[in-house]
Design goal:
Its EC number is 3.1.3.3. Pathway: Amino-acid biosynthesis; L-serine biosynthesis; L-serine from 3-phospho-D-glycerate: step 3/3. This is phosphoserine phosphatase. The chain is α/β, with parallel strands linked by helices. The protein has 3 domains: 215 residues, 3-Layer(aba) Sandwich (Rossmann fold); 112 residues, 3-Layer(aba) Sandwich (Rossmann fold); 69 residues, Alpha-Beta Plaits. It is 37% helix and 22% strand. The protein is built from 18 helices and 17 strands. A 6-stranded parallel sheet has the order 3-2-1-6-7-8, sandwiched between helices. A 5-stranded parallel sheet has the order 10-9-11-12-13, with helices on both faces. The radius of gyration is 25 Å and the shape is globular. The two termini are 27 Å apart.
Length: 430
């Protein structure tokens, strides 16, 4: 059965509400600009939360804009820099599903088309409103005959399109939920990467904090193997908010605790701690999901560093009490989680692999015994998988291998790599 993906634009494909941003551009020199900005934002939220009809909201917002074609050019440049992070990193999905992805928005084609077509989305698959201009290029209204300018417009449009197959809706607003409510789509995914509207999220089939999450649960190809929102970052002790902000921006699920408790450590993929709240070697024994520890201070216990290494857990600490560790530690942790970089770790061999385009990256951590690399490569050879880059570094305890391959693979390949004798941890990055 064919599948179609109906994606909203404002606060979904992009991080912002475009009409709100257009107002900030067009009213920049207006004496009452702050008051008008507030009116437009309130009208946007009332409509998105279902408290005001979309028709009335749109009409009143456009009347307040005082915008022209030059303002639209500035807006387009701005929006291109505001594409939602999880959408921008999954460009390959849009390229491979050009016929199935539709942008359906109550916004306007004049600014949507230049943004989304850079992501391989077909112009014929963009459904949105259109402005009406006067001879000087000023916006004086919009096409009121377009169903998307009306209340329930997305439902009306889908009835006209009469798509045959499974239809999934992704958006942040009430008009997106109406597609589910009408029975026009199979599932509605409330997209919360940029904003979470509780009145919408509570009615959704699934809350998706990122596009990665949507692709993951629907078993679709994606840029990263596992959504960050599913990885818990346990925080214990005095950790600066600025450091945590970097992890939140990456999408990690932050959890604060007063002390390290085994039940929470077992669930964590990342641990942030200070010098006085470090785990014991014994606590790491059952921390099967833990991949990295970021310690804001010095790891004093050499046994902890060795125990972590034995478990395939990398540690980054800041032995110099560097005042910039609020940036240093999260940057190193993110570099390891995203690309496998181990530089400046206190217990892993040093590796800074270059990022390879159009490749899949796999990490294999094993006991430092002879012959492991040959066994890894034998698996790839059995499945006719071409290696485009491979890096091996070792210390007294472990071998650390990063392999970049340029073809797809099935679950059997991953299972064989995990099953190699003396494997400690195996991870697919992207």
């Amino acid at each position: 059965m064919d599948q179609y993906f109906i994606i909203d634009f404002d606060s979904t494909f992009t991080q912002v509400e475009a009409l709100d941003e257009l107002a900030r551009i067009s009213l920049k020199n207006h004496p009452d600009r702050e008051g008008i900005y507030k009116q437009i934002e309130d009208l946007t939220n009332a409509s998105m939360e279902g408290r005001l009809s979309f028709t009335e909201s749109l009409q009143r917002r456009v009347e307040l804009l005082c915008a022209n074609r030059d303002h639209l050019k500035q807006l387009i440049s701005h929006l291109k820099k505001k594409v939602s992070t999880s959408f921008s990193r999954n460009t390959i999905f849009f390229k491979n599903h050009q016929n199935e992805v539709l942008i359906v928005s109550g916004g306007f084609k004049e600014f949507i088309t230049p943004v989304v077509t850079e992501y391989h989305i077909k112009k014929d698959n963009i459904y949105a409103n259109t402005f009406v201009f006067d001879e000087e290029g000023n916006i004086i209204g919009y096409d009121t005959e377009n169903p998307l300018s009306q209340e329930g417009g997305k439902v009306k449009l889908l009835k006209e399109l009469n798509l045959q197959g499974e239809i999934f809706g992704i958006g942040d607003g009430y008009s997106d939920f109406q597609l589910k409510e009408s029975g026009m789509i199979k599932k509605f995914f409330a997209f919360t990467e940029n904003i979470e509207r509780k009145s919408v999220a509570e009615k959704a089939d699934h809350i998706t904090p990122s596009f990665d999450e949507f692709l993951y649960i629907n078993k679709l190809p994606r840029a990263i193997s596992y959504p960050k929102n599913r990885i818990k970052c346990l925080v214990v002790g005095n950790v600066d908010d600025e450091a945590l902000a970097q992890m939140k921006k990456e999408g990690y699920n932050i959890r604060h605790k007063e002390v390290i408790e085994e039940e929470y450590l077992q669930e964590a993929g990342v641990l942030f701690c200070d010098e006085h709240h470090q785990p014991t070697p014994e606590q790491l024994a059952n921390a099967g999901r833990l991949k990295v520890i970021g310690c804001f201070g010095k790891v004093q216990n050499r046994k902890l560093a060795e125990a972590a290494c034995d478990k395939g857990i990398i540690i980054f600490d800041d032995p110099k009490q560097n005042p910039r560790n609020v940036d240093f530690i999260p940057r190193r942790v993110i570099g390891f989680m995203n690309e496998g970089k181990t530089h400046m770790s206190c217990n892993f061999p040093d590796l800074q692999p270059p990022r390879v385009s159009n490749a899949h990256r796999l990490i294999h951590i094993h006991k430092n015994v002879p012959g492991i690399l040959a066994k890894i490569n034998e698996v790839f050879a059995q499945h006719n998988i071409n290696i485009v880059g491979e890096f091996l570094v070792t210390n007294a305890q472990i071998g650390y291998v990063i392999t970049d391959v340029n073809t797809g693979y099935d679950a059997q390949v991953l299972n064989q790599l995990k099953a190699i004798d003396n494997t400690i941890k195996f991870r697919l990055l992207y």
